[in-house]
Design goal:
Blueprint lengths: L13 H16 L2 H12 L5 H4 L2 H18 L2 E2 L2 E4 L5 H7 L5 E2 L2 E5 L5 H7 L7 E5 L7 H4 L3 E4 L8 H5 L7 E7 L14 H8 L3 E9 L4 E8 L1
Parallel strand pairs: 1-3, 2-4, 2-6, 4-5, 6-7
Antiparallel strand pairs: 7-9, 8-9
Helix pairs in contact: 1-2
Amino acid sequence: MKHTSHHPSEAGDWYEHAFDLTRGIAAYTRSPLIEGISRVIAKHPDAHIANAFNHKQVACKLWARDTLLSAAGPAYSRIAILGGWYGILGAMLLEDSRFKVAAVDSFDIDPDVEAVACTLNAAFADRFRAVTADMYAIDYAALQADLLVNTSCEHIADLRSWLDLVPTGTRVLLQSNDYFSEPTHINCVASVEDFVNQAALTTLDFAGSLPTKKYTRFMLIGTV
């Protein structure tokens, strides 16, 4: 039987190993997003990047990206992402050659994530902007985004009151879930039908569900 040993310093070197690994994966895949993650590991060691890019987060964002392409097409002059966190969804859209996206604005109320999002999206600095802002305080008419994305509708106490701030005719991509046991989820929905009723969109291009191990994620694409 083969035995392996671990040096005591290996656990403490996690960030160094992760940095080397992600740099190698970035070189192999030529992915600006993976390269950005390696920069975040090196520059922002306190960022929860492993949680932000875990397989569940990635699956939900891939679902959003691929469904958006099929339901609403590839071309956008400005995409505004609310609750954008570290800007991963923005990077996924910007690095996908199937899309033609002129600009992505990633908004988040947490001031600590702005610098991390900019580091992660450094390859797209000419098209990506991270902004610290309360989603209720944004002037959506002045923003002139042709797509608003909010993948955290379970955190919004009154979804329709927020949507009422958005100019009529604006396309939106919304996600929520039925993970009622999570204390920070203050407005979950039990089904995609409940989500449709809650959002009350003017037009609906897509309504669907993505089952996961602990909960089901719901998504709507349409216009306000």
